[in-house]
């Protein structure tokens, strides 16, 4: 297989340890060594597409003991997807047996595990393998693991996703709190909140799922809201058995239903343009929902945002407004000043006595790879490359980092439709790039975007974002401190699918070592 992967510990002159460790097969034209980081929905999709393309020389490295990614990690009460399950699933692996319109997290996790088994990913999985550093060595990548081992690869595909690092607010005195406190993505399996006074910090996507679930059992729940969110009804329903049977037996019915859901969601992208009439209609719909569901005028004012719908993520729930109107639930809008041993003190000086604190505060949006370190050509670190602005050519590749690709990378998030659509488009594009790098003589080319092409793509994305609701003046996690949005795709999924149908080779530097 040639060469060696060198791990530089105390320095190059201090006797570096050399470890030779390859992936599944030695390099040749039909078996490029491919490392996939993460066994969530994107990493699994990459592996499945490689197998279907006849490329089996890959390994999926996963730090945990199971596949599933976010659906394995998030086990908080009420966890479910806010995209209908028939669309939040692979187009090549439809599931006629989804129990509900919006399936709970455990059911999506079961889907992940079942799909991994069905498509034979097991032999390609290396579990409990935490990657700490990915380093380009000139013609190959060296992947370093927390246990000190290393492997080499011709291609690295990051399937780590965009939101995987929990965001825990740095509150004064938080370490002094005597009761259990934890982030929603790190929910202890043995915690019991029955009969306890619980504080939920945050009022966004995870909070509106957690609060209705824990309120009936808790003695009292206090929701600490910083900013209200627009909420629309989820309209969740259980699928009757006859419909699930029809999905299974009637050819094309499930695909037609999936298409209907797609079209129902896709139109909303038009409402995210500044000055859009649809945007105005969407706001009226959101306000009407609040007026219908929240009786008390003071509470209604607290939960009504002062920004246009879509500027922050629009949430869906059938029971959150009911939950916060319970006698044993309070919505607190005064800012948190500090945490004490027995509760949270807000800016108005009141102590809210608590037995447990749940941080439903989301994830770090600007840490796509953190804490992973990526070192590219000439020893340049990716976090330095991205210090002045995070971007990737076609959302999947970065100049200076040959044969490294990202799934759910910069500017590939959606505010209106299923991320699975984006993942499948990216996986197809990356697969085409890998095939294009394979030479007839068995060598493997180094493929990276031309800086000018990457800059042109990034400028076009930012120009189109400038006319959207996300740039209308409100502050959200979509935007960095400079006001630049790298998280979202600025248009329809159809436009994205068209642009990602195949690589344009003139946009890439291609060299053979």
Structural commentary:
- The structure is a single chain.
- With 513 residues, the chain is of the alpha/beta class.
- Helices cover 26% and strands 17% of the residues.
- It is built from 13 helices and 23 strands.
- The chain has helices at residues 41-52, 70-73, 105-118, 207-214, 241-249, 253-266, 277-293, 297-302, 320-324, 382-385, 419-437, 451-465, 493-499, and strands at residues 5-7, 17-19, 34-37, 58-61, 125-126, 131-136, 141-145, 150-153, 155-158, 181-183, 197-201, 220-224, 231-232, 315-316, 329-332, 336-340, 343-346, 351-353, 356-359, 373-375, 404-406, 445-449, 508-512.
- A five-stranded parallel β-sheet has the order 5-4-3-9-21, covered by helices on one side. A five-stranded parallel β-sheet has the order 10-19-11-12-15, covered by helices on one side.
- Helix 1 (41-52) packs across helix 11 (419-437).
- The longest helix is centred in the last third of the chain and has 19 residues, at 419-437.
What is the strand and helix layout of this fold?
Layout: E1 5-7, E2 17-19, E3 34-37, H1 41-52, E4 58-61, H2 70-73, H3 105-118, E5 125-126, E6 131-136, E7 141-145, E8 150-153, E9 155-158, E10 181-183, E11 197-201, H4 207-214, E12 220-224, E13 231-232, H5 241-249, H6 253-266, H7 277-293, H8 297-302, E14 315-316, H9 320-324, E15 329-332, E16 336-340, E17 343-346, E18 351-353, E19 356-359, E20 373-375, H10 382-385, E21 404-406, H11 419-437, E22 445-449, H12 451-465, H13 493-499, E23 508-512
Parallel strand pairs: 3-4, 3-9, 4-5, 6-20, 9-21, 10-19, 11-12, 11-19, 12-15, 13-14
Antiparallel strand pairs: 1-2, 6-7, 7-8, 16-17, 17-18, 22-23
